[in-house]
Amino acid sequence: MKTKEKILIWMSIILVILIFLAYFFMRYTVQIETLSSLSVLTTKQKELENKLVILNQQKSQLNTELTNLNKQKTQSENELNSVNQQRSNFARYSFNRLNNQSIQQIQNLNVASVQIPKRINEIKTNIDKKNIEIKNKNIEIDKTTKEIDYLKKITTQPFDVIINDITNYPNGFIKPKQDSFVMNYIMTGMPDIIPEPSKLDIGNGQTISISNDTKANTILVISPDNDSSFPRLFTINIKYSGDKAVWGLYTADTNRDFMPNYEYSNQIIESTEFPSKFLHDKTTYKISDKNIKIANVNLGNKIMSVLTTGDAVDKDYKTYAKVEMDMKGMKIEFLNENDTVSGIIIILSPKTKTNPNE
After folding, report:
1. pLDDT in tens, 274-294
2. Does 61 reside within a domain?
C-alpha cells in the first residue's frame, strides 16, 4: 500500500473519530444544560422546604399563643363570675350594717365588674386576630406544599431554538447587525420559580432545557437583548430534541386560572390592554412604564402572544405572523414588512402523556 493511501486511510479514521467525539460532546453539553436547569429547581425546592419548616414553626407558636389566650379568657370569665357572686352576696345586706372594710370591698368589686369585661373583650379581639393569622398561615403552608409537590414532579426537556432574519435585502445591501436575544420561562402557578435567562444570537441554534410537567402550563418569553429590536421579518423555530417524551405545543385547558383568555388567541397585544387580554394570574407579570416583564425578561410594550396555530393579528386584524405547530415543535414566521414587535410570549401546554399510568 502506498504511503499516500495510508495517509488518506488514517485521515479518514481520524475524521470519523472526531465526528464521534463531537457528537458525544454535544450530548454531554445538553446533559450539563439539563442538569443546570434542574439544579435551579432543586435549589428552589430546598428553599421551599426550609420555608415550610419555618411556617409550621410559626403556626405552632400561633397555636400556643391562641391556647394561652383562651386560658386567659376562661380565667377572666371565672373571675367575673366570682365578682358578680360577691356583689350579689353583699346586696343582701343593708348598707348601714356594713363596716368600712366591706364598703371598700364593694367599691373594688364594682370597679372589677367594669374592668374585667373590658379585659375579656380585648382577649376576644386578640383571639380573633390570632385565628386570622393561623388561617393565613394555613393558606401559605398549603400553597408552599403544593409548590414543593410540583417541583418534585417537574422534569426538563431539551429544545433546539433558532431565530433567523428572513428579510429580503436588496443586492449589495449590508445586512444590519442584530444584537442577541434573551429567552426564559416560568411554570404556571409558580411565578417565583425563575431560572436564568438564555441568550440567543441570530442564525445560531441553541439547545435550551425547559421545565415541564403533565399538570402545569409553561410560559416562554423571548425578547431582543439590550433594548434592540426584532428584525422586521424573522422566523423562530423551536424543535423538541429529546429521545423519549414529546411535548404537546397546542394550548390545553389545564390550570384555567393561569391561561390566557381564549377569545384573543394569537394576537399582538399592547401593554395598556395586556391585563384584560392575557393571564388571569396577575402575579405572573409586571407592568412598569408601559413595559411588560415576565420571568425577569423585559418584553417592551408590544407583545405577540402565541397560543395555537394560525395567524397572529393586531387590533385592526392585520396579519403579523403565522404559527405552525406539530408534536415535535413549532415555527413562527413574521410576515409584516413594515412593523415589528418588542417581545413574544408562547404558551406551551403540559407534556403529552405517553404512558397511561404517568
Report:
1. 877 766 567 778 888 888 898
2. yes
